[in-house]
Write a structure and sequence with these properties.
By secondary structure, the chain is of the alpha+beta class. It has 2 domains: 88 residues, no CATH class; 89 residues, 2-Layer Sandwich (GMP Synthetase, Chain A, domain 3). Helices cover 49% and strands 18% of the residues. The strands form 2 sheets. Strands 3-4-5 form a 3-stranded mixed β-sheet. The chain is elongated and about 85 Å long. The mean pLDDT is 79. Keywords: Membrane, Transmembrane, Transmembrane helix.
Length: 196
């Protein structure tokens, strides 16, 4: 579901829920004895002490063959729709593409993260890397780099090339301001296999 459709569905559901609650509140307020004297003549007046669905009417409805299956189907359908709606709100949709400085140029954040990981892994002294690019409100990017250095590689030897590469990545996302967080670790040396 696209962001625009999801937003429209959310607003529609909230509007309908608000309308139902406003109508129910109006009906409850209008049945109060202090208010009934000031209602228009066309407004259906409720008898004192009456309820929306009394015991006799409820017993008549329960005797109907269609009442229970219809009520169960409506309750199940409503529960499934609300559960789906709630789960859809938790799951993030696909990240929107980032607008680049070129007119009409865009890039997906995942593609930028993959390219950055590939470039960082090619640096001397780096065993492997993983990167993540998050789009934040206000045209901001958060770039997270997790880098494992080869055993014996010095962070001081890798950092200048790494800083140049992250500066290039920040510059390539030109209209957006980017902040990069780097986490360095040493890759564990492979243990020799023991044969018995």
């Amino acid at each position: 579901m696209t962001r625009r459709v999801r937003s429209a569905v959310n607003r529609t559901v909230l509007g309908l829920a608000g309308l139902v609650l406003a109508l129910a509140g109006s009906w409850l307020a209008a049945t109060d004895r202090a208010v009934t004297g000031r209602l228009p003549s066309w407004w259906p007046a409720a008898a004192p002490g009456s309820v929306l669905l009394d015991r006799d009417r409820l017993a008549q409805l329960r005797a109907e063959a269609w009442w229970t299956p219809t009520l169960m189907a409506a309750a199940i359908t409503l529960s499934v729709l609300l559960a789906y709606w709630s789960l859809a709100r938790l799951r993030p949709g696909p990240a929107r593409p980032l607008a680049l400085a070129l007119p009409g140029g865009t890039v997906r954040p995942q593609a930028l993260a993959e390219a950055l990981s590939t470039r960082v892994a090619a640096l001397p002294g780096v065993a492997r890397s993983r990167s993540r690019v998050l789009c934040l409100p206000g045209r901001r990017l958060e770039i997270g780099l997790r880098i494992w250095l080869r055993p014996g590689a010095s962070p001081d030897a890798v950092l200048p090339a790494l800083c140049a590469l992250t500066a290039e990545a920040e510059k390539s996302a030109a209209p957006c301001t980017a902040r990069t967080r780097i986490r360095l670790s040493t890759a564990a040396p492979h243990r020799p296999t023991r044969l018995r």
